[in-house]
Amino acid sequence: MNDHSIYPFVAIVGQDHMKLALVLNLVNPTLSGVLIRGEKGTAKSTAVRALADILPAVTVVKECPFQLAPWDDPVHCRECFRVDCREKRLAHEPVEEVTRPIRVVELPVGATEDRVVGTLDLEYALQKGEKRVEPGLLAAVHRGILYVDEVNLLDDHVVDVLLDSAAMGVNTIEREGVSFSHQARFVLVGTMNPEEGELRPQLLDRFGLCVRVEGIADRDARVQVMERRVAFDEDPAHFAREWESESLDLVEKIEAARRLYDKVEIARDRLYAIADYCLEVGVDGHRGDIIMMKTAKALAAFDGRTAVGKEDVDEAAELALPHRVRRQPLMDVAESVDKVRHKHSPEGGSK
Protein backbone atom coordinates (compact mmCIF):
# COMPACT_ATOMS: atom_id res chain seq x y z
CA MET A 1 0.00 0.00 0.00
CA ASN A 2 3.00 2.27 -0.51
CA ASP A 3 2.68 2.82 -4.27
CA HIS A 4 1.50 6.41 -4.47
CA SER A 5 1.16 6.21 -8.25
CA ILE A 6 -2.00 4.14 -7.77
CA TYR A 7 -5.30 5.90 -7.15
CA PRO A 8 -6.73 4.61 -3.82
CA PHE A 9 -9.55 2.09 -4.24
CA VAL A 10 -11.55 3.59 -1.37
CA ALA A 11 -11.40 7.06 -2.96
CA ILE A 12 -13.35 6.01 -6.05
CA VAL A 13 -16.70 7.83 -6.09
CA GLY A 14 -19.81 5.71 -6.56
CA GLN A 15 -19.74 2.55 -8.72
CA ASP A 16 -20.59 0.53 -5.61
CA HIS A 17 -21.61 -2.63 -7.50
CA MET A 18 -18.32 -2.71 -9.36
CA LYS A 19 -16.27 -2.24 -6.19
CA LEU A 20 -18.31 -4.85 -4.34
CA ALA A 21 -17.85 -7.44 -7.11
CA LEU A 22 -14.08 -6.94 -7.00
CA VAL A 23 -13.95 -7.16 -3.20
CA LEU A 24 -16.04 -10.36 -3.15
CA ASN A 25 -13.47 -12.01 -5.42
CA LEU A 26 -10.83 -11.18 -2.82
CA VAL A 27 -12.99 -12.74 -0.11
CA ASN A 28 -13.44 -15.91 -2.18
CA PRO A 29 -11.14 -16.24 -5.23
CA THR A 30 -13.13 -19.29 -6.45
CA LEU A 31 -15.87 -16.89 -7.59
CA SER A 32 -13.95 -16.93 -10.89
CA GLY A 33 -13.48 -13.23 -11.39
CA VAL A 34 -15.59 -10.38 -12.66
CA LEU A 35 -16.40 -8.78 -16.01
CA ILE A 36 -16.88 -5.01 -15.90
CA ARG A 37 -18.88 -3.68 -18.86
CA GLY A 38 -19.33 0.02 -19.47
CA GLU A 39 -18.61 3.11 -21.47
CA LYS A 40 -15.26 4.86 -21.43
CA GLY A 41 -14.35 7.05 -18.48
CA THR A 42 -16.32 5.19 -15.80
CA ALA A 43 -13.33 4.21 -13.61
CA LYS A 44 -13.22 0.58 -14.79
CA SER A 45 -9.45 0.38 -15.23
CA THR A 46 -8.83 2.70 -12.28
CA ALA A 47 -10.76 0.38 -9.96
CA VAL A 48 -8.94 -2.77 -11.08
CA ARG A 49 -5.49 -1.22 -10.84
CA ALA A 50 -6.45 0.27 -7.47
CA LEU A 51 -6.95 -3.26 -6.12
CA ALA A 52 -3.21 -3.26 -5.41
CA ASP A 53 -4.05 -0.83 -2.59
CA ILE A 54 -6.26 -3.28 -0.68
CA LEU A 55 -5.02 -6.78 -1.51
CA PRO A 56 -4.56 -9.27 1.33
CA ALA A 57 -1.22 -11.04 1.77
CA VAL A 58 -0.06 -14.50 0.64
CA THR A 59 2.99 -16.53 1.59
CA VAL A 60 5.26 -17.69 -1.25
CA VAL A 61 8.64 -19.36 -1.67
CA LYS A 62 11.10 -16.49 -2.06
CA GLU A 63 11.72 -15.59 -5.72
CA CYS A 64 9.69 -18.59 -6.91
CA PRO A 65 8.84 -18.04 -10.60
CA PHE A 66 5.66 -20.10 -10.17
CA GLN A 67 4.42 -18.31 -7.01
CA LEU A 68 4.25 -21.56 -5.02
CA ALA A 69 3.42 -21.65 -1.33
CA PRO A 70 6.00 -23.36 0.92
CA TRP A 71 3.54 -26.20 1.57
CA ASP A 72 2.74 -26.85 -2.13
CA ASP A 73 3.74 -30.13 -3.75
CA PRO A 74 7.32 -29.69 -5.11
CA VAL A 75 6.53 -31.65 -8.27
CA HIS A 76 6.66 -28.42 -10.30
CA CYS A 77 10.16 -27.68 -8.99
CA ARG A 78 11.82 -30.45 -11.00
CA GLU A 79 12.40 -28.28 -14.07
CA CYS A 80 12.93 -24.99 -12.23
CA PHE A 81 16.15 -23.12 -13.08
CA ARG A 82 16.67 -22.11 -9.42
CA VAL A 83 18.90 -25.06 -8.54
CA ASP A 84 19.47 -24.41 -4.81
CA CYS A 85 15.78 -23.92 -4.08
CA ARG A 86 14.84 -26.85 -6.32
CA GLU A 87 17.11 -29.29 -4.49
CA LYS A 88 15.84 -28.19 -1.07
CA ARG A 89 12.21 -28.43 -2.15
CA LEU A 90 12.62 -31.87 -3.68
CA ALA A 91 14.38 -33.02 -0.49
CA HIS A 92 11.51 -31.50 1.55
CA GLU A 93 13.94 -29.20 3.36
CA PRO A 94 12.87 -25.74 4.61
CA VAL A 95 13.23 -22.90 2.08
CA GLU A 96 13.18 -19.16 2.49
CA GLU A 97 9.68 -17.72 2.27
CA VAL A 98 8.18 -14.24 2.07
CA THR A 99 4.78 -12.72 2.70
CA ARG A 100 3.60 -10.21 0.11
CA PRO A 101 0.31 -8.80 -1.21
CA ILE A 102 -1.55 -10.72 -3.91
CA ARG A 103 -0.39 -9.49 -7.30
CA VAL A 104 -2.38 -7.84 -10.07
CA VAL A 105 -0.80 -8.86 -13.38
CA GLU A 106 -1.99 -6.95 -16.44
CA LEU A 107 -2.14 -8.73 -19.78
CA PRO A 108 -0.47 -6.36 -22.26
CA VAL A 109 -2.34 -5.44 -25.41
CA GLY A 110 -1.13 -7.66 -28.24
CA ALA A 111 0.59 -10.17 -25.93
CA THR A 112 1.77 -13.26 -27.80
CA GLU A 113 0.83 -16.78 -26.80
CA ASP A 114 4.44 -17.49 -25.74
CA ARG A 115 4.40 -14.39 -23.51
CA VAL A 116 1.21 -15.60 -21.83
CA VAL A 117 1.94 -19.31 -21.59
CA GLY A 118 5.73 -19.39 -21.35
CA THR A 119 8.26 -21.31 -23.42
CA LEU A 120 10.61 -24.27 -23.24
CA ASP A 121 14.31 -23.87 -24.03
CA LEU A 122 14.64 -26.58 -26.66
CA GLU A 123 18.34 -26.00 -27.23
CA TYR A 124 19.04 -26.59 -23.55
CA ALA A 125 16.81 -29.67 -23.58
CA LEU A 126 18.69 -31.16 -26.55
CA GLN A 127 22.13 -30.41 -25.10
CA LYS A 128 21.51 -31.37 -21.48
CA GLY A 129 18.64 -33.80 -21.82
CA GLU A 130 16.70 -31.73 -19.29
CA LYS A 131 13.72 -29.40 -19.57
CA ARG A 132 14.21 -25.74 -18.75
CA VAL A 133 11.16 -23.51 -18.57
CA GLU A 134 10.93 -19.80 -19.23
CA PRO A 135 7.74 -18.90 -17.30
CA GLY A 136 5.08 -16.68 -18.83
CA LEU A 137 2.40 -14.43 -17.39
CA LEU A 138 0.31 -17.40 -16.22
CA ALA A 139 3.14 -18.43 -13.90
CA ALA A 140 3.47 -14.90 -12.52
CA VAL A 141 -0.28 -14.64 -11.87
CA HIS A 142 -0.75 -17.93 -9.99
CA ARG A 143 -2.62 -17.13 -6.74
CA GLY A 144 -3.15 -13.60 -8.05
CA ILE A 145 -5.37 -11.49 -10.28
CA LEU A 146 -5.09 -11.40 -14.07
CA TYR A 147 -6.39 -8.12 -15.45
CA VAL A 148 -7.37 -7.95 -19.12
CA ASP A 149 -8.36 -4.52 -20.41
CA GLU A 150 -10.56 -4.57 -23.52
CA VAL A 151 -10.99 -8.30 -23.02
CA ASN A 152 -13.45 -8.43 -25.91
CA LEU A 153 -10.64 -7.49 -28.32
CA LEU A 154 -8.32 -10.35 -27.36
CA ASP A 155 -6.98 -12.60 -30.11
CA ASP A 156 -8.83 -15.92 -30.26
CA HIS A 157 -5.74 -18.05 -29.57
CA VAL A 158 -5.00 -16.10 -26.37
CA VAL A 159 -8.65 -16.44 -25.35
CA ASP A 160 -8.39 -20.20 -25.78
CA VAL A 161 -5.31 -20.32 -23.53
CA LEU A 162 -7.09 -18.32 -20.82
CA LEU A 163 -10.16 -20.55 -21.09
CA ASP A 164 -8.11 -23.70 -20.61
CA SER A 165 -6.16 -22.33 -17.65
CA ALA A 166 -9.21 -20.81 -15.99
CA ALA A 167 -11.09 -24.10 -16.30
CA MET A 168 -8.29 -26.46 -15.21
CA GLY A 169 -6.20 -24.28 -12.90
CA VAL A 170 -3.16 -25.60 -14.79
CA ASN A 171 -1.06 -24.15 -17.60
CA THR A 172 0.68 -26.53 -20.01
CA ILE A 173 3.63 -25.47 -22.15
CA GLU A 174 4.15 -27.71 -25.19
CA ARG A 175 6.75 -27.47 -27.90
CA GLU A 176 8.13 -30.07 -30.31
CA GLY A 177 6.84 -33.00 -28.28
CA VAL A 178 8.19 -31.62 -24.98
CA SER A 179 5.68 -30.49 -22.40
CA PHE A 180 5.63 -28.98 -18.91
CA SER A 181 2.68 -28.10 -16.65
CA HIS A 182 2.38 -25.81 -13.65
CA GLN A 183 -0.42 -24.48 -11.47
CA ALA A 184 -2.19 -21.38 -12.76
CA ARG A 185 -5.09 -20.54 -10.47
CA PHE A 186 -6.03 -16.91 -10.77
CA VAL A 187 -8.92 -14.47 -10.56
CA LEU A 188 -9.76 -13.22 -14.04
CA VAL A 189 -10.84 -9.58 -14.17
CA GLY A 190 -11.83 -8.11 -17.53
CA THR A 191 -13.02 -4.69 -18.58
CA MET A 192 -14.70 -3.84 -21.86
CA ASN A 193 -16.73 -1.27 -23.73
CA PRO A 194 -19.73 -3.13 -25.28
CA GLU A 195 -19.79 -0.63 -28.15
CA GLU A 196 -16.54 -2.21 -29.39
CA GLY A 197 -17.99 -5.71 -29.63
CA GLU A 198 -19.20 -8.49 -27.35
CA LEU A 199 -17.32 -11.43 -25.85
CA ARG A 200 -17.25 -14.98 -27.10
CA PRO A 201 -19.86 -16.93 -25.09
CA GLN A 202 -17.21 -19.41 -23.86
CA LEU A 203 -15.18 -16.64 -22.24
CA LEU A 204 -18.22 -14.73 -21.00
CA ASP A 205 -19.37 -17.72 -18.95
CA ARG A 206 -15.96 -18.03 -17.26
CA PHE A 207 -16.46 -14.77 -15.40
CA GLY A 208 -18.16 -15.49 -12.10
CA LEU A 209 -19.71 -12.04 -11.74
CA CYS A 210 -20.65 -9.30 -14.18
CA VAL A 211 -21.43 -5.65 -13.52
CA ARG A 212 -22.47 -2.85 -15.82
CA VAL A 213 -21.15 0.63 -15.05
CA GLU A 214 -22.34 3.99 -16.29
CA GLY A 215 -21.35 7.60 -15.80
CA ILE A 216 -22.61 9.07 -12.51
CA ALA A 217 -25.74 11.19 -12.93
CA ASP A 218 -25.64 12.97 -9.54
CA ARG A 219 -24.18 16.51 -9.80
CA ASP A 220 -22.52 16.50 -6.38
CA ALA A 221 -20.90 13.13 -7.02
CA ARG A 222 -19.54 14.31 -10.39
CA VAL A 223 -18.00 17.32 -8.65
CA GLN A 224 -16.42 14.94 -6.12
CA VAL A 225 -14.89 12.94 -8.96
CA MET A 226 -13.26 16.07 -10.36
CA GLU A 227 -12.03 17.34 -7.00
CA ARG A 228 -10.48 14.03 -5.98
CA ARG A 229 -8.84 13.45 -9.34
CA VAL A 230 -7.25 16.90 -9.34
CA ALA A 231 -6.02 16.41 -5.75
CA PHE A 232 -4.49 13.05 -6.71
CA ASP A 233 -2.81 14.38 -9.86
CA GLU A 234 -1.30 17.36 -7.99
CA ASP A 235 0.10 15.38 -5.04
CA PRO A 236 -0.40 11.59 -5.23
CA ALA A 237 1.56 10.85 -2.04
CA HIS A 238 -0.45 13.30 0.07
CA PHE A 239 -3.73 12.10 -1.44
CA ALA A 240 -2.84 8.46 -0.70
CA ARG A 241 -2.00 9.31 2.93
CA GLU A 242 -5.40 10.96 3.35
CA TRP A 243 -7.10 7.68 2.38
CA GLU A 244 -4.64 5.31 4.07
CA SER A 245 -6.75 4.74 7.17
CA GLU A 246 -9.85 3.79 5.16
CA SER A 247 -7.74 1.54 2.95
CA LEU A 248 -6.36 -0.29 5.99
CA ASP A 249 -9.87 -0.69 7.40
CA LEU A 250 -11.04 -2.28 4.15
CA VAL A 251 -8.04 -4.64 4.07
CA GLU A 252 -8.84 -5.78 7.62
CA LYS A 253 -12.50 -6.28 6.72
CA ILE A 254 -11.56 -8.38 3.67
CA GLU A 255 -9.13 -10.52 5.68
CA ALA A 256 -11.74 -11.05 8.39
CA ALA A 257 -14.27 -12.11 5.73
CA ARG A 258 -11.76 -14.57 4.24
CA ARG A 259 -11.36 -16.19 7.66
CA LEU A 260 -15.11 -16.23 8.28
CA TYR A 261 -16.18 -17.55 4.88
CA ASP A 262 -15.85 -21.26 5.69
CA LYS A 263 -18.05 -20.79 8.75
CA VAL A 264 -20.91 -19.20 6.80
CA GLU A 265 -23.92 -21.50 6.50
CA ILE A 266 -26.66 -21.32 3.90
CA ALA A 267 -30.06 -22.83 4.71
CA ARG A 268 -31.76 -25.17 2.27
CA ASP A 269 -34.59 -22.72 1.59
CA ARG A 270 -31.96 -20.19 0.42
CA LEU A 271 -30.63 -22.82 -1.98
CA TYR A 272 -34.14 -23.29 -3.35
CA ALA A 273 -34.41 -19.52 -3.76
CA ILE A 274 -31.19 -19.55 -5.79
CA ALA A 275 -32.51 -22.39 -7.95
CA ASP A 276 -35.76 -20.44 -8.49
CA TYR A 277 -33.85 -17.37 -9.63
CA CYS A 278 -31.81 -19.37 -12.14
CA LEU A 279 -34.82 -21.26 -13.48
CA GLU A 280 -37.04 -18.21 -13.82
CA VAL A 281 -34.55 -16.14 -15.82
CA GLY A 282 -33.55 -19.12 -17.97
CA VAL A 283 -29.93 -19.65 -16.94
CA ASP A 284 -28.21 -22.41 -18.93
CA GLY A 285 -26.34 -25.09 -16.97
CA HIS A 286 -25.50 -25.06 -13.27
CA ARG A 287 -22.49 -22.77 -13.03
CA GLY A 288 -24.77 -19.82 -12.27
CA ASP A 289 -26.38 -21.59 -9.30
CA ILE A 290 -23.00 -22.47 -7.79
CA ILE A 291 -21.48 -19.02 -8.31
CA MET A 292 -24.63 -17.38 -6.92
CA MET A 293 -24.42 -19.55 -3.79
CA LYS A 294 -20.73 -18.68 -3.27
CA THR A 295 -21.49 -14.99 -3.85
CA ALA A 296 -24.27 -15.02 -1.24
CA LYS A 297 -21.89 -16.62 1.28
CA ALA A 298 -19.16 -14.09 0.47
CA LEU A 299 -21.64 -11.23 0.97
CA ALA A 300 -22.60 -12.59 4.38
CA ALA A 301 -18.95 -13.04 5.37
CA PHE A 302 -18.06 -9.53 4.23
CA ASP A 303 -20.89 -8.23 6.40
CA GLY A 304 -19.55 -10.24 9.36
CA ARG A 305 -22.40 -12.77 9.48
CA THR A 306 -22.31 -16.58 9.60
CA ALA A 307 -25.70 -17.16 7.99
CA VAL A 308 -26.84 -16.22 4.49
CA GLY A 309 -29.91 -14.00 4.47
CA LYS A 310 -32.49 -13.28 1.81
CA GLU A 311 -30.81 -9.96 1.02
CA ASP A 312 -27.59 -11.83 0.22
CA VAL A 313 -29.37 -14.09 -2.26
CA ASP A 314 -31.07 -11.12 -3.92
CA GLU A 315 -27.82 -9.19 -4.29
CA ALA A 316 -25.99 -12.30 -5.51
CA ALA A 317 -28.59 -12.63 -8.29
CA GLU A 318 -27.77 -9.14 -9.56
CA LEU A 319 -24.06 -9.95 -9.71
CA ALA A 320 -24.01 -13.56 -10.91
CA LEU A 321 -26.90 -13.98 -13.35
CA PRO A 322 -27.23 -11.27 -16.03
CA HIS A 323 -24.39 -12.46 -18.29
CA ARG A 324 -25.33 -16.16 -18.04
CA VAL A 325 -28.56 -16.03 -20.04
CA ARG A 326 -28.16 -16.74 -23.75
CA ARG A 327 -31.79 -16.13 -24.72
CA GLN A 328 -31.97 -12.36 -24.40
CA PRO A 329 -29.76 -9.27 -24.82
CA LEU A 330 -27.90 -8.43 -21.59
CA MET A 331 -30.03 -5.34 -20.99
CA ASP A 332 -33.20 -7.43 -21.03
CA VAL A 333 -31.60 -10.04 -18.80
CA ALA A 334 -30.83 -7.41 -16.17
CA GLU A 335 -34.47 -6.35 -16.27
CA SER A 336 -35.55 -10.00 -15.90
CA VAL A 337 -33.38 -10.41 -12.79
CA ASP A 338 -34.94 -7.27 -11.32
CA LYS A 339 -38.43 -8.65 -11.98
CA VAL A 340 -37.64 -11.95 -10.30
CA ARG A 341 -36.07 -10.13 -7.37
CA HIS A 342 -39.28 -8.11 -6.96
CA LYS A 343 -41.32 -11.31 -7.13
CA HIS A 344 -39.27 -12.74 -4.26
CA SER A 345 -39.61 -9.57 -2.17
CA PRO A 346 -42.26 -9.31 0.58
CA GLU A 347 -44.28 -6.79 -1.42
CA GLY A 348 -44.10 -8.96 -4.49
CA GLY A 349 -45.06 -12.19 -2.79
CA SER A 350 -42.01 -13.85 -1.23
CA LYS A 351 -41.96 -17.62 -1.41
Question: What is the third-level CATH name, the topology of the largest domain?
Answer: Rossmann fold
> Regarding CATH, which class of the largest domain?
Alpha Beta
* Series of H and E elements: HEHEHEEHEHEHEHEEEHEHHHHHHH
The named CATH superfamily of the largest domain = P-loop containing nucleotide triphosphate hydrolases
Physical arrangement of strands within the biggest beta sheet? 4-7-10-1-11
Characterize the largest beta sheet: strand count, sense, and whether it forms a barrel: 5 strands, parallel
Query: Level of helix content?
Result: 40-55%
Q: Strand-residue fraction? A: 15-25%
Q: What characteristic shape results from the CA principal axes?
A: globular
Mean pLDDT, nearest integer?
A: 82
| Reported CATH architecture of the largest domain | 3-Layer(aba) Sandwich
Number of discrete helical segments: 15
Structural class: alpha/beta
Tally the structural domains.
3
Radius of gyration: 22 Å
Unreliable residue stretches:
329-333
Q: First CA to last CA: what distance?
A: 46 Å
Q: What is the total tally of β strands? A: 11
Overall description:
Helix content is 44%, strand content 15%. By secondary structure, the protein is α/β, with parallel strands linked by helices. The chain folds into three domains: 34-56 and 102-213, 3-Layer(aba) Sandwich (Rossmann fold), CATH 3.40.50.300; 58-100, no CATH class; 262-344, Helicase, Ruva Protein, domain 3. The strands form four sheets. A five-stranded parallel beta sheet has the order 4-7-10-1-11. A two-stranded antiparallel sheet has the order 2-3. The radius of gyration is 22 Å and the shape is globular.
